[in-house]
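quick q for whoever's on today - can somebody do inverse folding on this one?? i tried earlier but teh output was garbage lol. tokens:
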């Protein structure tokens, strides 16, 4: 029997569309994706795409499971240039496997998947059956700049000036999303994803100019970049791991490349790290064995400088190149720390030196800047959650680097009440959101990047900030109970 085009069956309700990227995919308006069987002739599928004025056709099996997809952007490379006969079944030219998301995933998940895979359409499933399809246009109809388009622009940037222009657009997009009320978690994830793409492209361009093969190395992200928590105002924290039996002989070539990348990132608006945590520094351009030796030294000795290094370098994530080189380094800190209770206690003592951001009367501890009372959102706020989350991650063998995921894993490992673990995450998210707002220019002119003047906060924001500070204090109190006995 000749296959015919059909529509996916789905409910008819049409819920209001979401206004933020952290809304679930099931909140999108339901529509009928164009779909066909694998044996459908190309001519039939293409005519249906033209008639429906859509950019894609899904290939489904009898159970409604996605087998492949053909999009308008596939036609040149898959149909026209290979001169495929229009009588051929669509299965011969469809793209597979199909990247899908369950309707419980969020718009942010779809945006990140599109950027990571370089695609423009994501089928949405329920119990494995396709029930909807979301496109790039759907996700960013309210944005003047397409996230996936910007990601593609960065991936194809031919030179440094093109990347500089892209970096400016990243900051513009972040400010637009912030103005539209998108959650801080979504914005920081998007910023980090786009910054990753920009840095990876710059590394690829410079490595090629130096005649170096990135299959023999991996570019590493540390600090906030390693945690995937970059805000609008962020500097560089990076390193390089390379393959070599004679690292001293090979290092100069990698250092020259890395130094040029560091300068390029600086030109794109990511300032050079004042602490020298950059791949162009010999201490951050090492072989796998050399990195492992540094990690082992810090945990074995636990001097103040070692604790500082651990707070930066143990938030490690591979960014581009040969990821397999970084995987042993990601797992190593937690494995070593679990066998070194003294080191964990030292980390705890270091974290507990942070001043709880409340005074004896329950008011916010503030500083004075230009005659205004300001609150340090980083050192009195997010840094507390970051440091405690890192410690608990090391203590319980959690390999995640993101603070949010670390807090969730810690709450589960410590068997805290659900509302308490949720409060940790919510307080961190709120503080990150305020940091973004200040950095986007909502604070007073001339205010340092992580300081929020209390005068710019409304009553609800002021109360929420105070409650976030209380959550931070309770988190430090729990840490003290766990490690000061």
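ok took a stab at it. sequence:
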């Amino acid at each position: 029997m000749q296959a015919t085009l059909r529509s996916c069956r789905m409910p008819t309700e049409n819920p209001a569309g979401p206004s933020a990227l952290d809304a679930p995919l099931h909140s999108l308006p339901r529509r009928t994706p164009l779909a066909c069987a694998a044996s459908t002739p190309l001519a039939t599928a293409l005519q249906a795409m033209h008639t429906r004025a859509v950019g894609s056709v899904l290939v489904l099996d009898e159970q409604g499971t996605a087998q492949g997809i053909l999009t308008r952007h596939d036609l040149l490379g898959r149909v026209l240039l290979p001169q495929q006969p229009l009588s051929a079944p669509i299965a011969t030219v469809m793209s597979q496997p199909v990247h899908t998301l369950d309707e419980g995933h969020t718009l942010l998940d779809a945006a990140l998947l599109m950027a990571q895979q370089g695609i423009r359409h994501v089928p949405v499933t329920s119990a494995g059956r396709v029930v909807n399809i979301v496109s790039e246009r759907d996700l960013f109809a309210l944005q003047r700049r397409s996230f996936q388009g910007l990601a593609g622009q960065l991936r194809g940037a031919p030179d440094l000036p093109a990347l500089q222009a892209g970096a400016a657009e990243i900051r513009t997009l972040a400010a637009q999303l912030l103005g539209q009320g998108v959650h801080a978690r979504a914005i920081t994830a998007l910023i980090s994803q786009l910054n990753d793409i920009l840095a990876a492209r710059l590394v690829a361009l410079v490595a090629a100019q130096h005649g170096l093969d990135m299959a023999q190395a991996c570019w590493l992200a540390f600090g906030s970049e390693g945690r995937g928590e970059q805000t609008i105002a962020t500097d560089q924290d990076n390193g390089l791991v390379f393959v070599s039996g004679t690292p001293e002989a090979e290092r100069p070539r990698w250092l020259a490349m890395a130094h040029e990348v560091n300068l390029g990132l600086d030109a794109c608006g990511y300032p050079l790290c004042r602490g020298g945590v950059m791949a162009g520094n010999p201490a951050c351009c090492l072989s796998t064995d050399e990195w492992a030796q540094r990690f082992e030294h810090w945990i074995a000795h636990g001097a103040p400088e070692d604790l500082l290094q651990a707070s930066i370098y143990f938030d490690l994530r591979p960014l581009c190149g040969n990821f397999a080189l970084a995987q042993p380094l990601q797992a190593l800190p937690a494995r070593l720390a679990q066998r070194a209770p003294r080191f964990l206690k030292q980390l705890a003592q270091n974290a507990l030196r942070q001043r709880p951001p409340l005074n004896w009367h329950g008011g916010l501890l503030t500083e004075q800047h230009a005659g205004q009372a300001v609150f340090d959102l980083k050192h009195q706020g997010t840094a507390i959650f970051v440091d405690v989350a890192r410690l608990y991650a090391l203590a319980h063998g959690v390999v995640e680097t993101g603070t949010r995921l670390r807090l969730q894993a810690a709450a589960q490992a410590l068997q805290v009440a659900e509302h308490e673990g949720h409060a940790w995450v919510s307080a961190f998210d709120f503080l990150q959101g305020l940091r973004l707002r200040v950095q986007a220019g909502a604070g007073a002119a001339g205010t340092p990047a992580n300081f929020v003047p209390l005068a710019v906060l409304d009553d609800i924001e002021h109360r929420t900030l105070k409650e976030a500070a209380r959550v931070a204090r309770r988190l430090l109190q729990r840490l003290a109970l766990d490690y000061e006995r």
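fwiw Residues 6-139 form a domain with the CBS-domain fold (CATH 3.10.580.10). also The chain has 17 helices and 14 strands. so keep that in mind when u check it
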